[in-house]
Amino acid sequence: MQKAVPYRPQLPPAAAASESSGPHALAAGDGHGGKFNGTKVNIQRMVMENPVIVFGRYGCCMCHVVTRLLLGLGVNPTLYEVLEEDEAALVGELSRMVGHNDNNGSNNLQFPTVFVGGRLFGGLDKVMATHISGELVPILREAGALWL
Description:
Elements: H1 13-18, E1 35-36, E2 39-40, H2 43-49, E3 52-57, H3 61-72, E4 78-82, H4 87-98, E5 113-116, E6 119-122, H5 124-133, H6 136-143
Parallel strand pairs: 3-4
Antiparallel strand pairs: 1-2, 3-5, 5-6
């Protein structure tokens, strides 16, 4: 049986040195990334640099389910957690990045939001549906998240 590698929330280098535990939050930024514990974070760069990244609310059980499913498949996803009060800023940034703003200003994105290979993959429903249909593993291989 394979031993799963425990996941760690994404921490920028400066924040990792100054903070050993606690919630990881995104505050409202200028559209090029938010402030992450006083350090600038570029969300688009994070999405492009990681084969699989899960954005979710801190302590969300559905984010935990998606992360555990991916870990069980042999993927080590990057997990980016945000506090509930900073959720709107992150959803707005992700929506601008993928172009999902409605005319009335509401956003279609909900947590957990999964990006695979630098593109929006979907949420919990999409991940579970593709896993059940057997299409998830080939998609993860193509994105470079699985080697076998």
